[in-house]
Amino acid sequence: MNIIPQPSTLATQVVDAIRSVVGSDSAVLHEPRFNGNEWKYLKECLDSTFVSSVGKFVGRFESDLADYTRVNHVVAVVNGTSALHIALQLAGVKTDDEVLIPAMTFVATANAVRYCGATPHFVDSEERTLGVDPQALREYLQDVTETRKGQCFNKTTGRVIRAIVPMHTFGHPVDIDGVLAVAQDFHLVLVEDAAESLGSTYQGSHMGTFGLVGALSFNGNKVITTGGGGAIITNDSVLAKHAKHLTTTAKVPHRWDYVHDRTGYNYRLPNINAALGCAQLELLPSFLEEKRRLYECYQKAFAKISQLLIFSEPKDCRSNYWLQTLMLDDFSADQKDAILAATNDAGLQTRPVWMLMHHLDPYLDCPKMELPVAESLSQRLINLPSSVHMEIEGVR
Amino acid sequence: MNIIPQPSTLATQVVDAIRSVVGSDSAVLHEPRFNGNEWKYLKECLDSTFVSSVGKFVGRFESDLADYTRVNHVVAVVNGTSALHIALQLAGVKTDDEVLIPAMTFVATANAVRYCGATPHFVDSEERTLGVDPQALREYLQDVTETRKGQCFNKTTGRVIRAIVPMHTFGHPVDIDGVLAVAQDFHLVLVEDAAESLGSTYQGSHMGTFGLVGALSFNGNKVITTGGGGAIITNDSVLAKHAKHLTTTAKVPHRWDYVHDRTGYNYRLPNINAALGCAQLELLPSFLEEKRRLYECYQKAFAKISQLLIFSEPKDCRSNYWLQTLMLDDFSADQKDAILAATNDAGLQTRPVWMLMHHLDPYLDCPKMELPVAESLSQRLINLPSSVHMEIEGVR
Hints:
The structure is a homodimer. In chain A, strands 1, 2, 3, 4, 5, 6, 7, 10 and 11 form a nine-stranded mixed sheet that branches. In chain A, strands 12-14-16-15 form a four-stranded antiparallel sheet. In chain A, strands 9-8-13 form a three-stranded antiparallel sheet, with no helix packed on it. The mean pLDDT of chain A is 95. By secondary structure, the first copy, chain A, is an alpha+beta fold. Chain A is 35% helix and 15% strand. The first copy, chain A, folds into two domains: 10-33 and 284-383, Alpha-Beta Complex (Aspartate Aminotransferase, domain 1), CATH 3.90.1150; 38-280, Aspartate Aminotransferase, domain 2. The longest helix of chain A is centred in the last third of the chain and has 32 residues, at 271-302. The radius of gyration of chain A is 22 Å and the shape is globular. In chain A, helix 1 (10-22) crosses helix 10 (336-345). At the A-B interface, helix 2, helix 4, helix 5, helix 9 and strand 15 of A face helix 2, helix 4, helix 5, helix 9 and strand 15 of B.
């Protein structure tokens, strides 16, 4: 009796391709690596007893980050969400404003808008960058907005659209020139959600430095981690001073008096988390090299599967390749769930892109443009195991 | 020629009395001590690579805290302010509500009310506890509120007064029986701001466990520290589950999908900070003993100065004596600034109580009762160096 071999499914091929890169062990989506001065600095911090809001590592982390991103000012905060919240406040976002953000983003972008009492207004993405599509956005804004007294008004809702917040998805820079032009033409403040893009550049300039202010994240799953942490980056010294003030309970400096001149926040990064950050930042260049090498391995391993591609950095950009990403073609989108199940069942952690913001209960009623590309991408993107310390088969 | 000796000023006497307790070195208000398993647990945490939102120390810290405070549920968060913010949300505080809080508190209590879109409504304190005066409050509420449909309405503003948030000042328990009775009679939810009172009890029960929900803080200046950190404590399992959900971006559990069912917060305590907390919590009983011994030393050292007293724990209470406190008599209140200057100039860090909330720019227009005791106390209280590791003269 002849046994006809089953043609291997796409899901099986994906499992095999990942295995050919990461080896036979299970692999998580992203875990940090501590192979530098982490323990030394943590110990130094503990021995100083300055583990909390005062201590030298916060200042050093801010200064090291400023050097790395070539920005004038960095204010370290407790996480990326708080960085975004304050960045929006610095941009002047207030109650009843609208803020343009991609429908395809992590929920923190939308939440931060809500914390300001404002309403997110969802924008489509482009396949080339996975970020805001400036051309489609321009056409949409021409249609639905009008300029009054130098402000952008949504003709339907009557509200001011105050700012635009592009997010650099999985570390890949958005078309920042295009977004900047839209921001300028429509009187929008540009705030960059650079939570995923530490180490990513466009024409040599670091993401997060193109707008008025940018937000970084150092959560445990990011390129470098401080446990939990984030940063506000800006070239504007007045904004930077205000950011520090807002994030440290808006306390007016005094030897002993406790005067606070506005409703501030307790968003300062503890010194012990900054100590970890200082050590991690020293390792960032080596992490970026390894992430790029991992991308190349995935490229090679998946080259023979015709129904998908491994996402590559956009033109003129250098991406940090934070999360490696597989993109299915239109005809294979219906295989997404099978691939997610097969890979996760095999101990290879993968995930789809976030559920689009306008499909989430808290944001169902928010204004939005047509979102065909984001809808399509959300059915076709899968993140692959992306840790820098994975033993790459080709390298072993 | 006879030289008549200058009578020593009150400020000089205070400097001398502090010196007789803390020795000749300079002394800060409060700095942490790490003489337990801090290094061990931090290293273990780092070696595990789980420094961020996932890891065993968060669960262990929550469980250890639950055991210590004898409460059913603990949710660890990023700081005391975020604990208060979520506690108020759990209490149902929403936009346009009013919340009763002491005028004499740290600004975080008022800020947390504002984060909910609500308005703080300021309440007087009593000299016996330094906290909310339930008798004065009862008389005030009888005057200015009325009950409609089981809710407490402010007759002047027309708004619902949703909750009351007593704060246990410097670790000393408020008259919690009195406050509980007011809360019950006026249909107010009781939320305890126990940020300063880890280790303090009333009739053997831990502060923060009397109301619907309580908030703790582990900032660097607190009895124990996690760098930055806080906790929500409650005996209600439904509320605890909701607190965990709200503080972890309201993500609905799923193997790979990113669904968030409401606007949540990124308030989880990183695992590395929890590791520090586990070690500190082991030391808490010894810290409390030393803080009580320091109080006794101050008592003795200041006994001969008639114009002031060292504040003692209220009746039926056991205080953590977080910050040692000197209370001037009415006739010596005008010496406060001279004492603050002399002590700080001598390298002995002291501070007055916080500027009262209704005097701060962001809260000038908030409703308030008459505040004679808080006004008087704010001119008469001075915190003294209170670290547990100070070399106590009497003990050396």
